[in-house]
Amino acid sequence: MAQASNLTRRPSLAKKVMGSINIKPSHKGLLHKKLGVPQDKPIPAKKLSKALKSSSPALRKEANFARNAKSFKH
């Protein structure tokens, strides 16, 4: 008999896999601040693509996360 997957044995894991992302409070809005875009406005695609090519590895990582997060379901 096959073993049950982790999702059925641990409901807390299922919740994380199925949709919510936890962003550290100190990191929320950091990319907006670095790019000079108000938090209530979306980051323009041109600024985001420029950040993806930045020499700063941290900025590239944040921009890549933002690009990927556009496809997340809310």
Q: What's the helix and strand layout?
A:
Blueprint lengths: L5 H4 L1 H8 L11 H6 L9 H8 L4 H13 L5
Helix pairs in contact: 4-5
Provide a short characterization of the protein structure:
The chain is mainly alpha-helical. It has helices spanning 6-9, 11-18, 30-35, 45-52, 57-69. The protein has one domain (23-74).
Record keyword descriptors for this entry.
74 residues, globular
Structural features, described:
With 74 residues, this protein is mainly alpha-helical. The protein has one domain. It is built from 5 helices and no strands. It has helices at residues 6-9, 11-18, 30-35, 45-52, 57-69. The N and C termini lie far apart (37 Å). The mean pLDDT is 83.
- Shape, principal axes of CA atoms: globular
**Rg:** 17 Å
How many structural domains?
A: 1
- Tell me the helix content: 40-55%
**Average pLDDT value?**
83
Q: Could you give the distance between the termini? A: 37 Å
Outline the biggest β-sheet.
Answer: none
Helix-strand makeup class: mainly alpha
Counted by DSSP, the helix tally is 5
Strand content: under 5%
The counted number of beta strands is 0
As residue ranges, the low-confidence spans are none
SSE succession: HHHHH
